[in-house]
Amino acid sequence: MNAPTLDEDLEDALAGPAAVGGVAVPGLRRARAWLTRAAEPGSVDLWRWTDDVGPVAATRALRAGTAPEKARTLVGARAEEDASLADLRRAERCGARLVVPEDDEWPALALHPLTVAAHTGGDEPAQQDRTTALVPPVGLWVRGDPPLDGTVDRSVAVVGARASTAYGEHVAADLGAQLGERGWTVVSGGAYGIDVAAHRGALAAGAATVVVLACGVDRAYPAAHSALFQRIVDSGGLLVSEWPPGAAPHRHRFLVRNRIIAGLTRGTVVVEAAARSGAQATARRARGLGKQVLVVPGPVTSAMSVGCHELLREPEGGARLVGNAAQVIEAVGALGEDLAAPVQRPATPRDGLSDLGRRVLDACPVRTGVSAERLAAVAGCDPLEAMRVLPALELADLVQWTGTGWRLAPPPRKGA
Fold it and tell me: Where are the transmembrane segments (predicted)?
């Protein structure tokens, strides 16, 4: 039996509900599959129109040439092509699927800020530029078994420079592992440098991690990470992309996909970033969505930390400095629950001393013992007061009686 044509599936979708049992009907899913190939993601005008008329009606209008001129211009010659069924079958062969807003596993809560931004962003140039616009995807191609919404519910983006330093890679791997150990999903772009270090850190902790690609989920880019991506899928992680299977990683697509990394997660951690970097762009997308922007500081002499420090310096940026996973979780987690423990400072016997005790201790010589009267003269107190605190200082091993006077106790020997 021949498979139904796209037009037949669209006709069936118009006659019934959009979803059955929490799963989009085939015709609607096929319409969204067609749109992911026909139109490059990131266009506010096209998304608004599609959201208004519905994906099935939008697909029919674009194929018939009756869509608004802006929409027809964005699709161009692709309107005459139909690879939707082939894309869905190709995805199925590599263990992938198309997740659409009508599915129960669609991460509606995480992506809601993108929806709000697309409706309220206006027509300013920044919102019309596909590489910077904040627009929800029409669908997401997902490779891996776990549901998308549950996987990204408690997730953090960890991004940074491709030309990273050993310091940056160490920090990113530690963050990935520590976040994973605490039940958080690490989301990144799978690139060289900081991205891959964060993914590997999460894998080392036995945790799920998500790679947001700028190409089809059946392709590995960079190719050297092919084995890593397969390991991520086998370990309960996901590969996610707006582009259909087989799509090539064109340069502009990396800038477009940054909003998905920022949108799926509760916050974005920038580990290292040069003066001009995609990591900075991802952080600014997160800021535009009202999500947390977190920054790991680096040496002021490092070119790979210039972008991090600029994010911290921006008065309107609201970026927060973080140094470990606990501080990240405190920023993005539940209010009053996911709190970072206070920084532990080394304790010394001097910490609990009174002002008088510190003064008498500072008056004690290192070698020769002196009388209480001499200590009182140096400390600026009464001799009786000095005699009252000296026994407590002796019990704390801070001073010792030499037989003729008081002096500082020698430091304990190593290994004692």
Answer: none
d(CA 15, CA 29): 15
Q: What is the C-alpha separation between 98 and 80, in angstroms, rounded?
A: 22
Question: In this prediction, what percent of the chain has a pLDDT beyond 70?
Answer: 94
DSSP H or E segment with residue 98: strand 96-99
- What is the Cα–Cα distance from 136 to 264, expressed in whole angstroms? 10
Q: Dihedral through CA 196, CA 200, CA 201, CA 207, nearest 10?
A: 120
Name the average pLDDT for the chain. 91
Candidate CATH numbers 4.10.320.10, 1.10.12.10, 3.40.50.12780, 3.40.50.450; the one for domain 141-332: 3.40.50.450
Using only C-alpha atoms, the chain has a radius of gyration, in whole angstroms, of: 30
Q: What is the pLDDT of residues 348-382, one digit of tens each?
A: 778 889 999 999 999 999 988 999 999 999 999 99
Closest CA to 349 of 411, 413, 416, 402: 411
Please, what CATH class does the domain formed by 349-408 belong to? mainly alpha
Cβ atoms of 138 and 47 within 8 Å: the answer is: yes
pTM (two decimals) = 0.85
Give the amino acid at 165: T
**Ramachandran angles phi, psi of 65, nearest 5°:** 80, 15
Residue 68: cis peptide before it, omega within 30 degrees of 0:
no
- Look at residues 243, 257, 264, 253 and name the one whose alpha carbon lies nearest to residue 33: 243
Q: pLDDT tens digit string along 188-209? A: 999 999 999 999 999 999 999 9
Confidence band for 262, pLDDT divided at 50, 70 and 90: very high
Ranges of H-type helices in 76-165: 84-93, 108-120, 125-128, 148-152
